[in-house]
User: What shape does this take?
Amino acid sequence: MNRIFDITLNDLRQLLRDRQTFLFLLLMPIAFTLLFGLAFGSFNKPEANADTRPIVVFNNQDDGNLGNQLADIFSGSNLIQIKTEQNQNQTELESLVKNDSVAAVVTVPTGYTASLKSDQPIVLELLIKQNNNHAYLIETEVKKLSNRMVQSTKISHTLVRLIPGLSFEENLNKINKAWRNPPIVISSQIVPNQQNNSNGMSAAQTAPGMMLQFSLAGLLTAGQMIVNERKSRVFQRLLTTATSQYHILFGHYFAILALVFVQFVILILFGQFIMGLDYLNQALPTFLLTLACAMCIAAIGLLIGMLAKSDDQAIIFALIPMFIFSGLGGAWMPLEFTGKTFQTIGHLSPVAWGMDGFKSILNANTGLETIWLPVIVLFGYGVLFFLAAAFTLKTKQN
Assistant: This one.
């Protein structure tokens, strides 16, 4: 164990002497995070007590009274902010959505009241961008509220058939009023704890993305260190002592792990206290995910050092995974903006799992249940890369 510790300390001394270590591990991720934040407006904080619900235009083209009752139902939503319009031009509505002036438009078509009274309801028209951050929330809420009206009319039709002399509209009004005062209430709130914008490039996206990307870029210094050790025959001389291959392997691994983990800690503290990202509100999930990311990335760095035969190869082997893993994994652009096929391919990258975990911590704020899968996957990737490095070392020595 002492031999592993000595190798780890020696590696850390060499890495800390190299100016590239500070360039790739600290200066560049901070600089690019700030650059992306300024470019995409990630630092624009919402005003205090501002209504952060997505704005949805309610375009009522129905002449009957049930369209107005539906407007009242939509106005009571806690998840979307309703802006009522009457018979507005379709082109103008499409322009509002296209320009991101509103999140969506719900249109009540002509004949809506008549269709409900005849017990043959027609479907509302929803106009929304599919790459909108709130698309799923809006679609779900619109479906829920429109179904509430449909179910209310079905109940009223049934009661009218069973009870002679009962008025359909009076009974429907009572049912809709009852919806406003349900016996059980589940309160919901959209928490604006992170800075979001219409591009989806929030600080909760850019900060973890740059952190993961440049942790991979910083591996080139670790790879070059291991390559130089082999080129100077230090590695071979160590093997003539009581030091085994696995002492050397674990010694190098723990040095890279310590360096990457400290990098993550510093950048997380930067995000917490400078950018206002609340990592520490979920301290345990943040620690576990950070450790899993560092273990995985350190194993990649170890593999790079074992595969590379020269400094140039070490640089190539570090930069290529950085670009591939970061691009596929959503470090540059949210995977939610891509198709399902690309999202599936992207999750072959460990960066995608790291991004999922950090965004869950920053946006969902729900604890361990949202990050256990990314942690397990990242740990599995770390074991896989470490075994690949061990196999490469054994093959070369043989």
